[in-house]
What we know:
Layout: H1 2-10, H2 12-38, H3 40-61, E1 95-96, H4 103-112, E2 116-123, H5 131-141, E3 147-154, E4 169-175, H6 182-204, E5 207-211, E6 215-217, E7 229-233, H7 235-238, E8 266-274, H8 275-294, H9 302-313, E9 318-320, H10 328-338, E10 350-352
Parallel strand pairs: 1-9, 2-3, 2-5, 3-4, 7-9
Antiparallel strand pairs: 5-8, 6-10, 7-8
Helix pairs in contact: 6-8, 8-9
Amino acid sequence: MAKLVRTLSQNPKCYLLHRMTFILLIALIMAFFGYGYMNPRKQRVEIIQAGASITIRKRHDLQGVELPRMVLAQPDVLTPSRKDVPVMTPWLAPIMWEGTFNTDILNEQFHLQNTTIGLTVFAIKSYLVFLKLFLETAEMYFMVGHRVNYYIFTDRPDYVPYLHLQKGRQIIILKVRSYARWQDISMHRMEMISNFSKQRFHQEVDYLVCADVDLKFSDHVGVEILSPLFGTLHLNFFFLSQENFPYERRPHSQAHIPEGEGDFYYTGALFGGSVMEVYRLTKTCHQAMMVDQANHIEAVWHDESHLNKYLLHHKPFKVLSPEYMWSEWLYYNMKNYMGDLPSSIKRIRVNVLEKHKNWPD
């Protein structure tokens, strides 16, 4: 050994080489034995396993959670629920007919979401005469079992009738100005719904349903209509071909829909959706009407023409069938080319009130 030391001391290069070899050998031994502790994959597995074991221990301490259960027959997805009417649009939005939805399932879903629905109606000037029947029938058939805010736009707050409402419902009176013509009242409702959606509706309700006051609810109208955006098929034109739709055809109107374009003709008497989507719709329609007004033009069917233009380019997520907007007097006048009550109409849910000679202008 002493001889080796003397040899190494006499040969520095050899000594340095052996020293480096010794250090490298020690490093390899440490790396081998320390691999298990330094391996990141093993560390991750241990952390995951530890977390899982903690989760399992906590879960054993929990009590059982009971969720609502509904036992229903298994649906046959390959067989349409109705074969006599279209139940789906070309963009795969459901068309709501009697027999195409399960009310119990939908009610349970919207109850779990704690949904509140706003129903807007304009009772201006002599149209207040229709408000009492509108509200009474809404209490009987509209969104039964759900929270509802009735937003009454009127120029005569003192004449709004008092009603005993179901639990979770309230009437909110919003005073607005009147206009000389009913057309102006109808068109300015887009502006007012837009303004109030931005100011307060988004804080108070989840969905808005916008309806005319000269209606009565005659059967169930529930959460099956709710979606981000919905429109209602106009009874007059559902049984007619597209070329007979009364779209605004003048190119210089903001409501213009060219010949050969269009999906359906929607009524302006019933539409809605989420507060945000209704805000977008009403704001866009109001702005378009203001442009028309500046250009001295009025769309052929006023705000309804602008509604149809909007729904052409912003497809509704649901479409309500004519069951949701029926008119006995209108149907009577159309019997010459419609014949008897179409067999597709299984359940009339909303009726337009019959026109009389003493109707308000």
